[in-house]
Amino acid sequence: MAWEDRTPFEAIDYTYGLSEQEVIQLMRRELKPSSFRLWRKRVTARKTKHLQLREPGVNRGYCPTQYKR
Q1: Contact 26, 2 (CB under 8 A)
Q2: Distances in Å between the alpha carbon of 40 and those of 9, 44, 45, 52, 58?
Q3: Is 8 or 22 the better-scoring residue by pLDDT?
Q4: Which residues, in sequence order, are CB contacts of 55 under 8 Å at separation 6+?
Q5: What is the pLDDT of residues 24-35, one digit of tens each?
Q6: 12-23: b or e for each residue (b if 16 or more CB lie within 10 Å)?
Q7: Which one is predicted more confidently, 38 or 51?
Q8: Rounded to an integer, what distance in angstroms lies between the CA atom of residue 7 and that of residue 1?
Q9: In sequence order, which residues have a C-beta less than 8 Å from that of residue 31 and are 6 or more positions away?
Q10: Using CA atoms, how far apart are residues 58 and 60, in angstroms rounded to an integer?
C-alpha cells in the first residue's frame, strides 16, 4: 500500500495501524537504499498520499485500472 502512489497514509493507518512515520521507517528498513530514496522523492508532498491535500473528487485509494479482471 505504501508503494502505491494513490493510497493515502491515512488508509494505511486505518488498515494496519501504522502512522506515516512508521511507514517511512518500515520502507527504509525493507527497501534497498536507492529504492527508498526514489520512493521518498516520489511521495514527498504528493497530494494523493494525504487525504487533506486530495482533490474532493478523488474518493478511492487506487486507480480503476490497478486491478485487472
Answers
A1: yes
A2: 13, 6, 10, 19, 22
A3: 22
A4: 47
A5: 999 999 999 999
A6: beeeeebebeeb
A7: 38
A8: 6
A9: 39
A10: 6
**Which residue in this structure is represented by grid cell 522523492?**
41
**What is residue 42's predicted lDDT score, i.e. its pLDDT?**
86
Dihedral sign for Cα atoms in the order 38, 57, 52, 25: negative
Residues 6+ positions from 45 with CB-CB distance below 8 Å: none
Predicted confidence band of residue 18 (pLDDT cuts 50, 70, 90): very high
Is a pLDDT exceeding 70 seen at residue 36? yes
